[in-house]
Every structure is written in C-alpha cells, then in structure tokens.
Amino acid sequence: MYETNFHKAATAQDAAALLAKTDDGKILAGGQTLIPTMKQRLAAPSDLIDLSQAVALRGVTITKRKKMGIMKADGGETITIGAMTTHAEVAGNTELAKVCPVISGLAANIGDPAVRHRGTIGGSVANNDPAADYPAALMALRATIHTDSREIKAEDYFQGMFATALADDEIITAVSFQAPALGGYGKFPNPASRYAMAGVFVAKSVEGDVRVAVTGAGDNGVYRHAGLEAALSADWSTAAIDAVEVSADGLMSDLHGTAAYRANLIKVMAKRALV
Amino acid sequence: MQAVYTNTVPVDAYRGAGRPEACYVIERIMETAAREMGVDPSELRAKNFVTSFPHQTPVIMAYDSGDFATNQKQAQKAADVAGFGARKAEALGRGKLRGLGYSNYIEACGIAPSAAVGSLGAGVGLWESAEVRVNPVGTIEILTGSHSHGQGHETTFAQIVAERFDLPTENIKIVHGDTDKVQFGMGTYGSRSGAVGMSAIVKAMDKVEAKVKKIAAHVLEAGEDDIVIEGGAVKVAGTDKQMLWHEVGLAAYTAHNIPDGMEPGLKETAFYDPTNFTFPAGCYICEVEVDPDTGVTEVVQFVASDDFGTIINPMIVEGQVHGGIAQGIGQAMLENVVYDDAGQQLSASYMDYTMPRADDLPNYSVHHASTTCPGNPLGMKGCGEAGAIGSPPAVINAITDAIGNNNLSMPATPAAVWTALQAVSSKLAAE
Known about the structure:
The complex is a heterodimer of chains A (275) and B (431).
Chain A: E1 5-8, H1 12-20, E2 25-28, H2 34-39, E3 47-50, E4 60-63, E5 66-67, E6 70-71, E7 78-82, H3 87-92, H4 94-99, H5 101-108, H6 113-118, H7 121-127, H8 134-140, E8 144-147, E9 151-153, H9 154-157, E10 172-178, E11 182-189, E12 196-204, E13 210-215, E14 223-224, H10 226-234, H11 238-242, H12 259-274
Parallel strand pairs in A: 1-3, 2-3
Antiparallel strand pairs in A: 4-7, 5-6, 7-10, 8-9, 8-10, 11-12, 12-13, 13-14
Chain B: H1 19-37, H2 41-47, E1 55-56, E2 62-63, H3 68-78, H4 84-93, E3 97-106, H5 114-119, E4 128-134, E5 140-144, H6 153-165, E6 172-175, H7 193-220, E7 227-230, E8 233-236, E9 242-244, H8 245-254, E10 267-272, E11 281-290, E12 297-307, H9 314-334, E13 364-368, H10 386-403, H11 414-430
Parallel strand pairs in B: 5-6, 12-13
Antiparallel strand pairs in B: 1-2, 3-11, 4-5, 4-10, 7-8, 8-9, 11-12
C-alpha cells in the first residue's frame, strides 16, 4: 500500500468538505474492496475519508403502508437503508426480515462473516462490482439512491461495470425502495470468490410491475432481462421461465464458465428465485 | 533435448509427485474398460489383483506385500455399495444424479534405497539418520533428520521410543530441524519419515538397548540374555534384581562400574538405508450427487480403506488420509491454474483459484486392512501421500458414472460437468 492520509468524518457534509480539500481523495465506507485494491497498489488515493463514525448514515427505517387503517400484509412498505449500514446489520434486522425477507437473505449471503460485518450497502452500490448482489436487488426493486445532493433512480444510476451516475465528489447517504409483493433472489456463487456468477433478482411490486435484474453474468455489469420480465409479468411461475430463451449474447465468458453456461445459470437462478 | 524459456510460474513436486498422475490414468482406464465391457468395475479390478509376493513389476519396483481384495471388500462394505442403487433412485427423485467411482491405488514411497535412486540419476542417497541420546538422568533426546512440519513426529517418534524402553513419553524429546544440533539427515518427503526415519531411530535404539543390557548385566552380575527392560527399570528376568532406567544412564556417564573396555556414555547413532520402497495400497470409493441444472457436484460419501502396514498412531495416520483426500478432491473438482494465450495467469489470486474449503469436502470414512511391510524393522508403509494419490480418479469415476459421459477432465468444475451433461443430452436428443 502506498502512503495515504486518513480522515474521519462525522457526517456526510463533513466528508464532502474534507473531500473537497484533497488532491485525489476517496470516501472509505466498509473498505472491503478499496482496501485490498490499495494493498495491491491498484489504487492509490491521496486521502481516505472514513465514514464509519457517521452514525446518521447507519440503520434501517421501515415506513409501514396503511390502507384504511389496517396494515397491508403483502408488501409496499418503504424501506430506507442508510449507506453505512453493514450487510450483517441488514441481514440481522428482524423488522426488515418480516417485510422484505428477500433482502435479508441476500445480505446474509454476501461474502463471508468478516466482509458482512465491515462491508456496507453504500460501499457496494458506489463500487458497482459487476458480480455484486445489491445492484441486482436495487435494480429489480426500482430503488432510489440518495446522495448528499440528489436522488437517482437505480435504472439511471447503474451504468455498466464499475460505472455509476455518481459524480466524483458525490456521497451516497441511503438507498430506499418499496417492499415487493413478491420477490426472490437466486445466486450461483463462483466456486472460488463466491461472488455471483449469475445472480437473478425477481420482484413484483404491489402495483404488479415485474422486474428481473441479473448480476454477475453480463459483460457490462447489472442489467434487466426483458424476456424474463415479460414472461413473469404474464405468468409468475417457473413454467413461464422455462419457456424463455435466455441468449448468451452479451454474457461473460471466463475461466469459470462460458457465456452459454451463464445463460443457463440465469434461467436456473431465475427459477430458484421464484421458489 | 530442447529447452524452452517460459514466463509461466515454476512448478515442482506436489503431494504424491508423479503417482497421482499414474494412478489417475490407470484407474480411469480400469473404470472405462469395465463400463465398456459391461462388467462391475470392482470385479474387473479384483480379477487383476496381484496375490503373490514378492511381485516383480516390469519397471524396477518389486511389490513386497499387500492384500488388495480385503481392502476392496472392506471399502465396499463401509460404502454400502449394495445399497447404491436405492440411493441413486432416491436422488433421482430429488432431481439429482448420483454416481459411484472406485480407485484401487498402489504407490511406491518411503524413498528409497540409495543405490536404486543412484541408478536413476539422483545426486543424493536417500537414507535417514537418527541419534538416540540417553542423558545421565535417564531422559532421552531423539535427534532425527526427518523434520516435522505438521506430520506429528513429536508424537509418533516419541511413542516408539517410549514403547521400546517402557518409559513415559514426556521423558522423550524429539529434536529436529536445528542444524546446530542435529546430524546430517535427508528430510521429510515421499512418505518416508515413518518407514525410513523411524527405522533409523529403531536401529539406533537397538545399539542403545545392547549397551544398556551390557551395563546392567555387569552391575547386576547376570547374563546379558537374562536382562529385560520394563516398567521404567532394567531387570534380571525372574529375580528381584533391577536398576531403574535412570540409574543405568547415570552408570554409563559416571563410568565407575562399566564393563572393561566399554566407552562411557549412552548415545548411539544410526544411518538407515532402506532395502526397498514401501508399497501402500488401498481402495477408495467416492459417491457424488450432481445437480444437472447447474453441474454443481457434491461429494456425498468418501470411503478409504488403506494398507499402511504397521500403524503407530491411528489418529495421525487418519489425519494424513483426510488431508490427502482433501487435496485430491481439490485437484479433481476445484483447483486450476489457467493462463491466457499471452501467458498471463488468470488464476493468480484466491478470487479465481479455488482452494478446497471445509464446505467443499465430505466427512471421510477411513479404514485399514494392513499387511506388514517386510522391508523395514517396524513393518511400516508410507501414508503421507496416499490420499492425494488415490482420490482424484475415484472422484472423476463417480462423476462420470453420475452423468453418463466418460469424457470429463479435471477439474470437474460446475461449468465443466454441466457442459459434459449437455453433450450427453444433445446426443440423446439426436438419437
């Protein structure tokens, strides 16, 4: 690791002010990607601004949706997750598990316990690793990414492999989304890294809008799968998925598997997301 | 001869060094032959077992002992091979393909007669050295050339000394790896520390025992042949005359009363050069379940029945077998060094190189059916590499059995297994 200056920020505003004063500063969330990358000398920011003390960026808020005074049971709650909330905190939040178990399960299967206790949703979303789990969830759940200056729809936010709509000095403060009426996540872990080789997030909103987002398999990061969305919109069933041709075009081929294998995995994981 | 420079990573001997490769080819051929002839793979192997010893092979090695049939039967019983059909049907009900594969390995280790390796071009002799040092207070230090880096020599070596002289193991210290103290030795590799390293200790103990008996016979005024060593004492058999073990040590170092012409002290060295390799052998049976949708393969059962000759410490031997099989499963299903066309290594970190992890591995069922090795004083055969040698073909034989396609290379990753399955199903569809 090359020499770097370390700062602690108490709030996102402090962090932005500190960042503005640096040559080539970077925001440090959980550091589960940035720190290893710095250790390998593949990144060398002049300054790190650590958000771990920014308590306001931490935690899960659930706004219950009420209909005629009675809580609606099948989704629709607005869930806001602070950017500095760790995967373990998301996975362990019992209220969240009641209203949106799919996101709890997804968080519980990110990395290993060490990663889950340091890694954060904000860090994951800012990094936009093409095999990370959260981008698929946020894309399928029509989430909003909140920054210190604006709100960005997930669809506009994720712009390909490691590419996002974030400006260099923009800081994610939270993500929010509605609990789906139906939702599931099927993940095929890479045997070595255990990142997704194909992760398929399926969600049906309370309004009936179906979205299917795929991570790990595409050659340019997370994307929505139109064929699967159309099939599941018509018929929310594994039989409907069986009838979809998943093309290998635009999928990744590497030492772990061909594009054809990943195309197969997308279909299988979509089905497993449903059950 | 043509020499080529390469920018790929240097490679060196891996656990088993050459025998895993040989065993893989032989055991894959045996399984394939059985399938093509429509006979039970275990029966085809049984028909071809060597049953009389010594058995001179065409390539230097002369097998000295073994009981391959008993190991195979024992493994089959432990693996409940008879119940495999029912398990396969049950798995199919859950949408999983179940397969069973054998490997009846034999290997040569405990290297090696120095003259033999000299004739093969080795620059060294492959004997081992040991010094047995009985201190004036009776404690014993064993200085061995067989270094211990996880093999548990401190335990096993101390056990054979404690048993020989009937002393508590805490009185025995194993000294290794310190070149300031230890005499020249050859080291730990090729599953040789037991068969060669411990044999050197036995040879040095023979000399110590002879001297101890001479001193005791002299002091106790008895015949050497009547002296026995037991219960921490050196006794005249059938009498109540005895010296405590440490009293013999003290007598040797004070030298006030030892036989005329005897050198004082009680410390002996031996260099042991084996007369033959040792030939551990066994039967491994692997059972897998394949998820046909993804190619993910789970090793659901792994049974090993090995012939390691005399076993000093069963737990340490079992640990060696566990580790060896884990490495073999890693090789068969997970580990892969991959380069691109430009020579860039693509598997350069654990993000891409799949090391076996605990959840990749089954519980092992480890058994033994031993024949004594006639080539060394303890009757031992090497056990350090057997697991890594015998297991890869058992795994691949099981997977190819499950998927009905024999054309599968290591490592059988999910993608490779799925691709092999597609080849079968498209062939079936074409028919």
